[in-house]
From TrEMBL:
Residues 500-612 form the Histidine kinase domain. This is histidine kinase. Keywords: ATP-binding, Cell membrane, Kinase, Membrane, Nucleotide-binding, Phosphoprotein, Transferase, Transmembrane, Transmembrane helix, Two-component regulatory system. Its EC number is 2.7.13.3. Residues 337-389 form the HAMP domain. It comes from Paenibacillus konkukensis.
Length: 614
């Protein structure tokens, strides 16, 4: 009931009103749905962007931290792989003393050499790129002797043997490392400003032996590592956590050594992963990535702070879009009213014409469609009588043309019957050669006149070629020989009518110069491709003429009528027109190849895709 009333109400309204109402509805509803959907899906976009920002920051911090830790490991590697240092330290560890008058000097020289070499290792490599990176290196021998880059007043290296981690070093072989941290700083000058330190330990063993003759300990201050966390400004709280979820490094020293309590957090991998985790009734983005030390790098970001800037941007965009929508809607209504005003006037004129007044004119003009419609409407009224007269004249001419065409028609069967009658009379008189010539001419004429049969089988086309050759041999003194090598499976292939005859004609006229010779026709199938070749043993072409012909074929350029080529021979088609016709019939899959040498004849090969004819 309500629908019917609505339809009646709309039908009583003007076209302008309905157009404006439809425009408002078609814009208002999709826009409302779009803005609502946009606001809904914005939340996912905000989350994805926050995760992306967190992971980008993690990637940067991971690079800094990894470089710092690898720097420590590289120092241990250099000491372990230095054969000269290893030889001296092994000698001291095994109790081989220095003898002779210079024993004391040699001992001092070797110790000074090792210490300076270690200091050079510290100052080389990546140290230049690290800010305020103070590294403490200790080489502790199994006999209690040691080499260090710091004074014994700072720390006595022998005390390392009492550290909790020292008992774990016996399980280290080769390049296996023990990472220790965080532990209270043992160096007197660092204790006040750097409460924690991190160390990596390597054992020095004889090759293929379990005998440990020394230990390499590389130590840095923990806040030299967490200094990398300050490189990025943001709400992320970065930390290094060991395999037991104990915090190894963090900007807040009170958290170091304490547990990281995050429920249901998946294990870290080499890939950066981010999870949304609730901690103390607040959502956090937890991003983590494993480090080569067995530790992992973790960042905590309050979700509200992570998305606050992005949410602010989306809110501003939403507000801007809504304001623009209102402005554009008002502008649309004004423009619709302006644009439809001429239509209202044109409708009034049409109603007047409907009542029979053909003298009225709309006088609506303009460069747009409505202006042209008004002009055409007025022109239509001006030319009604003229158009009626033109239609009458056109119909009369059409009837006359149809009559002329019917009168001009000739029955082809009459011509064929007359030729057959002539052939029979000639044959009865004993002139078989003339009878055969008339028979061949009749066949060719029938194929030429029959326009309906544009596609024939290959064996029919070869018969046409044989008849054509027979006629040409009767015209000229020297005869040509047609040799065929056609596979059985290609005889029933569908091909365009008269596609071989122009090639035979070109071979006879241009290749053999209408002298005696051999023209060979080959055909075979390869998959869905029919390959047909026409070859003569005539004079051939030089390279310039051959290249010019190939360029014309590649450019699909039809022959110029003024050169006389199209008027020679029986068909008047020419090689280039055959190429164009085959391309139009078989498509771009067709390809014609011309090969020729002076004095060696010419070979034209056509690659013809199978043609399905229904």
């Amino acid at each position: 009931m309500h629908t019917r009333k609505l339809r009646q109400w709309l039908s009583s309204r003007s076209f302008r009103f309905r157009l404006m109402l439809a425009s408002v509805i078609c814009i208002l509803i999709p826009t409302s749905i779009t803005l609502t959907t946009y606001n809904y899906f914005t939340q996912d976009a905000v989350k994805d962007q926050a995760i992306s920002n967190s992971q980008e920051s993690m990637q940067l911090v991971n690079n800094y931290v990894t470089n710092s830790l690898k720097y420590m490991l590289n120092i241990a590697n250099l000491i372990q792989m230095d054969s000269g240092m290893s030889a001296i330290m092994k000698k001291r560890a095994m109790g081989e003393g220095y003898t002779g008058p210079n024993a004391e000097y040699e001992e001092f020289s070797d110790r000074d050499k090792i210490v300076k070499q270690i200091e050079n290792m510290i100052n080389s490599g990546e140290q230049g790129s690290l800010l305020d990176f103070h590294t403490y290196v200790t080489v502790l021998l199994s006999n209690g002797d040691y080499y260090s880059t710091y004074s014994v007043n700072e720390y006595n290296p022998i005390d390392m043997t009492r550290e909790p981690w020292f008992s774990q070093t016996k399980n280290l072989y080769g390049f296996n490392s023990l990472w220790v941290g965080p532990s209270p700083t043992v160096f007197e000058s660092e204790k006040k400003k750097n409460p924690y330190q991190l160390s990596v330990i390597r054992t020095l063993r004889e090759q293929n032996s379990s005998f440990i003759f020394g230990y390499v300990v590389v130590t840095v201050m923990e806040n030299q590592i967490n200094h990398n966390f300050e490189r990025l400004v943001g709400n992320q709280d970065f930390m290094i956590v060991d395999s037991d979820n104990v915090i190894v490094s963090n900007n807040d020293s009170d958290k170091i050594g304490g547990p990281l309590n995050l429920p249901d957090l998946p294990a870290a991998t080499d890939q950066i992963t981010t999870e949304l985790v609730k901690v103390d009734h607040e959502d956090y983005l937890v991003t983590q990535q494993s480090l080569f030390t067995g530790w992992k790098l973790v960042s905590l970001t309050p979700y509200k702070k992570a998305v606050s800037k992005i949410n602010s941007i989306f809110s501003k965009v939403f507000t801007f879009q809504f304001v623009c929508f209102i402005l554009f809607l008002l502008l649309l209504l004004y423009l619709l009213r302006t644009f439809t005003k001429p239509l209202v006037g044109l409708g009034k004129v049409a109603m007047t014409v409907q009542k029979g007044n053909l003298q009225v004119r709309s006088k609506i003009r303009g460069e747009d469609e409505i202006g042209r419609l008004g002009f055409w409407f007025d022109q239509m009224l001006d030319r009604i009588q003229e158009m009626i007269q033109e239609i009458s004249v056109t119909q009369a001419r059409k009837r006359k043309a149809e009559l002329d065409m019917l009168q001009a028609q000739i029955n082809p069967h009459f011509l064929f019957n007359v030729l057959n009658s002539i052939r029979m009379k000639v044959m009865f008189r004993g002139d078989k050669e003339s009878a055969e010539m008339i028979g061949s001419l009749s066949k060719l004429l029938r194929m030429t006149i029959n326009q309906e049969k544009s596609i024939i089988t290959l064996h029919e086309e070869i018969e046409i070629v044989m008849d054509y050759t027979q006629l040409m041999n009767m015209r000229q003194k020297e005869k040509i020989v047609i040799e065929t090598d056609v596979s059985a499976d290609s005889l029933l292939e569908k091909v365009p009518r008269f596609f071989l005859q122009p090639l035979i004609e070109n071979a006879l006229i241009h290749g053999l110069n209408q002298a005696a010779g051999i023209i060979r026709v080959e055909a075979r199938r390869e998959g869905h491709m029919l390959i047909v070749a026409v070859e003569d043993n005539g004079s051939g072409m030089d390279s310039g003429t051959l290249n010019k012909l190939r360029d014309k074929l590649a450019a699909r350029r039809a022959p110029d009528p003024v050169d006389g080529e199209s008027h020679r021979g029986f068909s008047g088609i020419g090689l280039l027109n055959v190429n164009e016709r085959m391309l139009m019939t078989h498509g771009e899959g067709f390809h014609m190849q011309v090969d020729s040498e002076p004095g060696a004849g010419t070979r034209i090969t056509m690659f013809i895709p199978s043609l399905e004819v229904t």
